[in-house]
Amino acid sequence: MSKNKQTISLVLGSGGARGYAHIGVIEELEKEGYKIASISGSSMGALVGALYACGKLEEFKEWILSLNMLDVIKLVDFSLTGKGIIQGDRVFSVVEDMIGDVMIEDLPIAYTAVATDLIKQKEVWIQKGKLLDAVRASVAIPSILTPKEISGRFLIDGGVLNPLPIAPTVSDITDITIAVSLNAKASKKYELDIPEKEYEKETKIQKIFFEMSRKTEEMVSEETKSKFDDIGMFDIMGKTIDIMQNAILESKMAGYAPDILIGIPNDTCGFYEFNKGYEMIELGRMITREYFINN
Question: Is 71 in the active site?
Answer without folding.
Answer: no
